[in-house]
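Aim 2, interim progress. The first record below pairs a target sequence with its structure tokens.
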Amino acid sequence: MSLLLPEPGLIFWMVLVFALVFFILAKWGFPVITGMIDKRSAYIQQSLRDAEEATQRLSALEEEHQRMLEQTRREQAQLLKEASDARAKMLSEARDDAQALSEQMLTRAREEISAEKEAALAQARREIALLGVSVAEKILRDHLSDEETQRALLDRLSEEAFPHDETS
């Protein structure tokens, strides 16, 4: 039964060793352990503050990102609107220029047609006049083939050109 009932000397030495170990631990061990625990607690608290600050900065960055994205979208929409307006203006100007050029070309063509028509009419008149002279010449040749007819025609023409005054 000596295991269940320790001897008083053993108890004394056990208490003395326990007190000595407790004293040594209390003097040098526990302060180091509590210092390490406090240090670890401070590190965890600092990490939590840093994490909270990082979360706030991340939130601010996300807001900034959303704001920049919205601004970029507005600028893109503005650029697209300006490009669309410029395209419409260019198309309108091109259409107006083409219409003006078309009208100018049409006017020039009408003038050329009119000039060619006048030239053709003048040419036709010349040819008709030449044809008339040629026909008249042939008729006169046939009609005035003898000398007596020629003299009669000349007398009549001179009479018409220079009439005599019979009263004088």
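The second target in this work package is listed in the same format:
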Amino acid sequence: MQILVDADACPVVRIVERIARQNNLPCILLCDTNHVLASDYSKVKVIGAGADAVDYALIGICQKGDIVVSQDYGVAAMALGKGAYAIHQSGKWYTNENIDQMLMERHIAKKARMGKGKKHLKGPSKRTEEDDKRFEESFVRLIKQASENAESR
């Protein structure tokens, strides 16, 4: 099991790394050339700029039992399809039971925006310490579940 992070503008990278280190889990941060990162723990893969290049690279190395951290529902859906686990930076787990509805809601929201001529919405609200705590607790639970599932195989 390894942790793969869609690290372009990801606000929880340091939390993920700290918990990965505590659990002795390998961690790979994937970013494009516009968001180059450095880490003293994780392997950093810089992917050439291009639409969805990081997403496809992440899914290309993702394997069954890995944990993917991404805010992209499409990446999460592909990770689930490979038998991996996926978590949003909010701490919400993507599952086979909720991903279809999430993708549909995203599609409907995009259609509504396009119908109004809007291409971009106001960004998310400022991240709080409570947001980080919620993510951390959820991420720790996900690692525990993934480890237990790996042991029972």
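The mean pLDDT is 89. This observation will shape the mutagenesis plan for the next reporting period.
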